[in-house]
Design a protein that fits this description.
The chain is of the alpha/beta class and about 375 residues long. It has nine helices and 13 strands.
Length: about 375
């Protein structure tokens, strides 16, 4: 696709994230307990996460060089590790946690990764959001219970102005938001961004229906196959096995991306895990397929917690590619948008390729937030 010029807006770059913070509790077991049975599992970990927190950390890390000695470095000056020729990006998180140990851990994880957590509220008498993941070791099947907790206490009134979106009344270059919050809160954040001419990256996950009028005017829509099918009301066919496969004119993928663009979004991106991603910015045009980064199976460890390397066959396919993998994709894509915007240009294919590369790196390290790469971990093509 042809490059498109995007206006430059000063030297200060900022990304606002309005999203969920979740404490992930992951246990691995040989089998599920029967009704009324207590069964001993093989392993357990707790890790700070949530789609909002993950994408916020990814946005900061992927716009900065890795500090020397990381992760042993306790404090790192934010402006000391900027990419050459780039002003860097400040990231602010708006969300809510409970007044509990998990809430403190979630906020500490953001601050350690230089994400401004001043707009993260601490709510009394309710726990932080929790994701309880039970993974069957031998079959790779997982079951997830999600308790939204404090995430549902972030109200529409909290994001009705610039102060709510970013803090200090600063106008960010981009808003990232997802659906781990209440619908009206997400809708209000999107409306506030539109009122102030702020670009919006919307990742409607977990997948559910949202009033279609909210999509109109969104700059970037990033969905996976399930979300694409839910929103477009069209089934999504898997890509072909050929190395040079591209979708056919008038075929399933064009119908899907055309339907997404018809909602009024400017750029539509559909992520497909190991199959890469599709993107389109023009209705009636065949979407472009970008292959995923090739990863040797032995390089896939996991992205859910330290000590799980021996279960990589389970976690890489069942959890990593569905959570941290795509949250990193979103953060990386956001960085590329802001970075290109500073350079007064825009190439959608370059952004998708960069996001694919960053997402692939995520599943080659142990940990949740800690598995998200820094810019210096990637082979950057300037």
């Amino acid at each position: 696709m042809a490059e498109e010029t995007a206006p430059a807006e000063g030297s200060t770059r900022a990304i606002a994230v309005v999203g969920g913070l979740v404490m992930d509790m992951i246990t691995i077991t040989a089998r599920l307990p029967n009704q009324g049975e207590t069964y001993i599992s093989d392993d357990f970990t707790m890790q700070p996460g949530g789609k909002g927190a993950n994408s916020a950390v990814a946005a900061f890390r992927l716009s900065h060089l890795k500090p020397p000695g990381w992760p042993d470095t306790e404090t790192v000056p934010e402006n000391a590790y900027k990419l050459p020729g780039f002003t860097g990006i400040s990231v602010s998180m708006t969300g809510a946690v409970g007044n509990d140990t998990s809430g403190k851990s979630l906020q500490a994880a953001l601050k350690r990764n230089h994400v401004n957590a001043d707009k993260v509220q601490t709510i009394d008498q309710i726990s932080s959001a929790v994701g309880i993941v039970i993974v069957e070791r031998d079959f790779g099947e997982n079951r997830i219970l999600y308790y939204p907790g404090a995430n549902e206490k972030l109200e529409a009134k909290d994001v009705c102005n610039l102060e709510g979106l970013y803090g200090g009344g600063q106008k960010p270059d981009l808003l990232i938001t997802q659906l781990e919050l209440k619908d009206d809160t997400v809708a209000r954040a999107i409306k506030t961004a539109k009122e102030h001419n702020i670009d919006i990256l919307f990742n409607p996950a977990p997948a559910r229906f949202l009033e279609k009028s909210h999509y109109h005017g969104i700059t970037h829509l990033i969905v996976n196959e399930t979300e694409a099918a839910t929103i477009s009301c069209h089934p999504v066919e898997p890509p072909g096995p050929e190395p040079d496969w591209q979708p056919e004119p008038g075929g399933n993928w064009q119908i899907v991306t055309d339907t997404l663009l018809k909602l009024g979004v400017k750029y539509a991106v559909v992520t497909c895990g190991a199959y890469g991603a599709f993107y389109s910015d023009t209705r009636g045009q065949v979407p472009t397929h970008v292959k995923a980064e090739k990863i040797e199976q032995d390089c896939i460890i996991d992205t859910t917690g330290a000590g799980y390397a021996r279960y990589r066959h389970v976690l890489s396919s069942q959890i990593s590619l569905l959570t941290r993998h795509r949250d990193t994709f979103v953060g990386a894509y956001a960085v590329e948008w802001v970075k290109q915007k500073q350079q007064n240009k825009w190439n959608l294919g370059v952004a998708v390729a960069f996001a694919n590369q960053a997402a692939a790196k995520t599943i080659q390290k142990v940990g949740c937030l800690e598995s998200i790469p820094w810019a210096s971990d990637l082979e950057l093509n300037e």
